[in-house]
Amino acid sequence: MVPEYILKIDEHHIGIEVSKLYKNEYRFPTEMLASGRKYSGVEVTLNKPHGKKVIMEFVLKLLLKGPKQYKPFVNQVLQRFTWLDLNDSLEILLLDGVIQITFKNQKPRKTVDWLPKIIQLDPRAMECLIERGPDYNLELMRIKDSVINLLSDSGSPMKDYLLQWIEDAEIKDQSGAVIADCTSFKKYKSIVLSVAYYVNLKEKGSKLPLRYLSNQIWSQPGLLNNYKNEIALSAGITLDELNSVFLPDINNTLHAPLILISPVEELQKLVVKLIESEIQQDSILFYINEMNCCLQRIGEVVGDSTESALYTFLQVYNDCTERLVEVSSKEVQLSILNDLKYSINVLKKEILKIGQIKQQFELIVLKEIGSGSFARVYRVFDPESNTIVACKVLFPRSYFKQVYGNDGDEYILRFKREVRLLTKELRHKNIVEVEKIQLEGTPFWFTMPLASFSLEKWIKDNHDASVDQRIKIFDQIVSGIKYLHEKDKYHRDLAPNNILLYETKHGLKVKIADFGLAKDPESVSFRTSLSKKSYGQEDFTDPEQLNNLADSTHLSDIYSLGALLYYLLSSKLPKKRFYVPVMCQSVVMKAMDKRGRRYQSIYEFEKDLNDCIKSLGN
To answer: Where does ATP bind (predicted)?
Structure first.
């Protein structure tokens, strides 16, 4: 326990009563129990104008389970709150007779050196809090309302069972054995509401992560997982059936949680835009107005959970924005904006300590759907948008250092460049778009729309697809690469698993993904634009690129397009082109020929392909 996390009290304070324990062999007392002289009730203490109600309620909730050792207790609270707030809260609770603290004397032979040892509820407060147990009749009415709302249009026989469970205040299986009742209220409520949600989602053909549902019901991500067997038994289904609707997650196996507090990120982006742009007086007023909107959203999200942190930030924010408008020196304005940026980072850290806020924004990772040389792609549920998306997560820096040594940072640069290309430079209907981005702390990640399948998966599952379908897919790939080349950029990693297909009511929509190897001649980084390493998926990669990535040009993409065309038309790997010909075989062979004999532009390639298809049609 670091020194500043040790609660110090004045044992002679008029509001504190102490009793000390002495032992014959020691000159000074060995222990001291401190408690408040006056007690006015827990509610009175919680509702004083100190702004500490949320942290006090959290402290009391922990202490209701029994006395706590001081060190682990403080460490647990500091995962959500600051030491300053905790220190103030403990002093108030102690003086108001709500808690008691036992102190141990570190040097009873020589002097008095009190160190907190045990923290517990004062018996007066304990009596009050125990009396504040749930009103079961009220709770049952609320549960009934929830069930009726969820199943108002349902014809499932489970609806009658659920209402009967609420009427009887107990849940029985088909043999009549009691599974749960109100004496184990968390278990009872969890089963009833989970079964109701299961029926509702099953009838709508929808799915939700169990972690998300647990957050909604209890603000505890793992609680419902404790009752999975009982939920399945009560609903008369198997665990596999339950998991098909209440999706399991793998959050606990990740290197770090994937959390992004949207309104705070938006505020930070606005400040960064001001820093990077030519600061003009009219633009300052515009951005301040936008930042005010973000602050309003932050207040709505956090409520009073971070009241002191938000109050401190608002003081800094108001001071910075006032000075920003008043001063005319660009240098001073830039200094003010950097101060504001730093304060936003501090606010972010404080907000991320609040479990309820983390649960509201943390991505729920359902499963891994792909892995490359420097990142993994996961299927995740975004609780903020209530949608399932894909999330590309960079491996931790330690991995790159261990595997690649000093070259490890190159992979981090590649990831950042991919994000920059997809967010700031590339906008096309056939290039994947990025949604949320996290490039601070670890790990780095970004989200994108979840594809129905990759081209590789589609080919495997659609051997009977028509030539017309296949050509329509290829035309969209060409459209995306043509746009890329017009922007003087090259993909360099075109392969079936990097071509994503989305099912829409208008047919298949194709998007090109994975720009980790994309070449940008305008890149300021020598290492990312002129890498000497060999990369690419061999069957679809220009041989010259495999020998030296730095030698790759737009001709490398044309080679890959020829390989993809063959793959689409034959459902076979491109190396089979010498033995199994396809329609437009001459186009495939020229696209994959040596560079000097290859198509020299994508327009040349596209024209020959279109002419070939027309001639075959005639």
So the answer is: 392
